[in-house]
Design brief:
By secondary structure, the chain is mainly α. The protein folds into 2 domains: about 5-85, Arc Repressor Mutant, subunit A, CATH 1.10.10; about 95-150, no CATH class. About 65% of the residues lie in helices and about 5% in strands. The chain has helices at about 5-20, 25-40, 45-55, 60-75, 95-120, 130-150, and strands at about 80, 85. It has a two-stranded antiparallel sheet with strand order 1-2. β1 (about 80) and β2 form a beta hairpin.
Length: about 160
């Protein structure tokens, strides 16, 4: 997971907490930003998936991109003909870079706190890279189950080891 991916995922999480909309609505701002950046004449779900990967490090399946495009068409930003979309009206100017900068600062605070914790509690001198790897390893092992439990307001899942 790259820095841009972790930043993008954090922005999605903040949107989830603050705005209480559905998953597609969270993606819309990223899609609009990418469409403004790349300004394609023809918009396809495949192209949008690639833009989101390039621009934000987000791996969004084509089906997810299709849902976002349909939502933009309902809002009359896109029109659909023969399976492809075209931009029909001026897309809003979405400034994600400020959110990315704020989010990156917060991630850096978390990493510094983790480094201090490792030092004070375990006498480990972790580099930034080591702290990032530890955090990403944690998320890769526990992230989905814990995120699912948080979203659905359920208790944390049991693991086979306990």
């Amino acid at each position: 997971m790259t820095e841009i991916t972790s930043t993008s995922l954090a922005i999605l999480k903040v949107n989830l907490d603050e705005e209480e909309r559905d998953y597609i609505d969270y993606m819309i701002n990223f899609v609009i930003h990418s469409l403004n950046t790349h300004a394609p004449e023809i918009v396809t779900d495949d192209a949008v998936s690639k833009y989101l990967e390039e621009d934000f490090g987000l791996s969004v399946p084509q089906k997810g991109a299709q849902f976002a495009l349909r939502r933009l068409a309902k809002r009359r930003y896109l029109s659909k003909e023969e399976g492809t979309y075209t931009i029909t009206s001026k897309l809003p100017n979405i400034n994600i870079s400020n959110k990315q900068k704020d989010t990156l600062r917060n991630i850096e605070k978390v990493l510094k706190s983790l480094i201090l914790y490792a030092k004070s509690c375990f006498q480990h001198d972790w580099s930034d890279e080591r702290a990032i790897n530890a955090l990403l390893n944690f998320f890769s092992r526990f992230g989905i189950d814990y995120l699912r439990a948080y979203i659905f307001r359920t208790t944390l899942p049991r693991t086979e080891n306990y």
